[in-house]
## 1
Amino acid sequence: MKKTARAHTNIALIKYWGKANSALKTPLMSSLSMTLDAFYTDTTFNHDSSLIEDTFILNGKKQTPEASKRVFNYIHLLQDRFGFNDHFTIESTNHVPTSAGLASSASAFSALATSFAASYDLDLSKKELSRLARLGSGSATRSIYGGFVEWQKGNDDASSYAIPIDEHPDLDLSLLALEVDTKQKKISSTEGMKLAQTSPFYEPWIKRNKQEIAEIKQAISDKDFTKIGELSELSANEMHACNLTAKEPFTYFEPETIKAIKLVEDLRKKGIECYYTIDAGPNVKILCTLRNRKEIISAVQKTLSNVKIVVASFGPGVTLL
Ligand code: DP6
């Protein structure tokens, strides 16, 4: 049966950056994200005993076996779990710049898990879908839900899944995604998080995780934009500090990334409240309120050359189309 699912990306405000089990993608820490309305993936899954091979079509282009490997391995893993073994076709359209720190894998694997389950007529709860999405990519665990989402780290495959914190937040919060460089990143998330664990700052960071999650959940329920912004920026800086202090130090930052960080700091000094967060790439995302949005956009355009700005806010959870 042919089924299509749409999933939106999410941006982690409290970061996931380390695996307890790399095959199961269970994390070393809980994380908390905001699902975004502006970026999403539509995926159609079809399986049929008459198909003679597995096919993966991305943005209208049939992918080579090499480029399809991660996706095929993932589907074979799911098929093994549920006892299926027929061939399949996956057609995916990404409305997210691939591999540039805007987690396209989050929307991709969330949409894929959901279309897979629907195509095989598996009657799975969102909790089960969240666990399946996790097996494809950690951040996909959270894209099953909309709004604010917590991925509870759990301690095994059964207990590591996302829960919705507030799917329709009544909060004035916009995210400006600054696409400073959409080239493919050099160090994958999987590789980066392994290296980061060699930092002397890594363990102290993990120890603070429970408290950081509790604090941001409190800030969300208090609708406290300042606190949400401060905690988000801190978590991003903790992650990037671990990268810079790893045994083999590395950074995702590019010159334009630093310019954007400085701009946010300058704007704050001028009383224009905004905060940044950065993932495994050079792009910077700015958190702000509606009141300051226009002014921040024009300051970004003045300061950074060739920057593309996409405005986002809260997006919905995964849906079948
Ligand atoms: C920095 O989910 O892409 O965006 O589990 O290896 O697929 P894998 O990693 P991925 O890592 C995302 C890391 C992050 C932070 C986050 O989204 O929490």
Note: Residues 12, 15-17, 25, 31, 103, 105, 137-139, 189-190, 279-280 surround DP6 (CB under 6 Å).
## 2
Amino acid sequence: LQGCNSNSRGALVVLEGLDRCGKTTQSSRLVQYLEGLGHSAELWRFPDRTTSVGQMISSYLSNKSQLDDHTIHLLFSANRWEKRSLMETKLKSGTTLIVDRYSYSGVAFSSAKGLGIEWCKAPEVGLLAPDLVLYLNISPEKASERGGYGCERYEQLEFQSKVAQYYQVLHDSSWKVIDACQPMEDIEKQLQEMVLECVKKCHNGEPLSQLWL
Ligand code: T5A
Ligand code: NA
């Protein structure tokens, strides 16, 4: 009967990792899995390129525009802030959100460019904290062998290695690290177990918290 608790909320689950680690593939499979079990679930992604801020980010990522490093950092953050209240509403109404990239990407990628990590974290403070972060672990070399690599601004080996180092620094107790070089189906099964456990915990009243306070 716990599932019938009218106050039960959805889980905030984030997938993180280097470019081409398989986040998009696994996020959509997770949403299908949860829906198949009768849970309410939605797939979200950052950057959300559909908003006007998101369009500026998209243009920057595809090298169609140039922006100062601080400026693009704050735009990525603003792109999460513009979705924060909808995120909270969805979670409180019982919908689980599977989110492809979040504040950890924001901090890891900008720090890798040389911006101070504390400066990078500051605008993320007060965003909703994920209940679970699934880090798909892959070496930059292996990731670069996958399809489509090399088209966008950040897809270079040396840069991706720095990003991986900053992800290490951000790793906290909400993280689970998964070997992203396994076959897709094996990764999928491992993620399903982790997410289901998290969804149950949130349904049973685990409180929502905020990032980096
Ligand atoms: N960024 C983002 C910031 O700098 N600051 C921020 O705040 C945020 C939110 C765009 C860039 O923006 C940066 C980070 C990024 O550089 P994006 O649009 O999410 O972010 O781009 P990517 O994360 O790079 O998305 P990709 O689609 O490139 O990578 P995915 O989603 O990790 O990988 P996926 O699932 O598309 O798979 C890539 C390829 O690998 C294959 C797939 O079939 C596909 O061809 N694949 C596998 N192959 C073998 N074995 C497996 N297990 C596989 N899983 C997938
Ligand atoms: Na990419």
Note: The two ends are 34 Å apart (CA to CA).
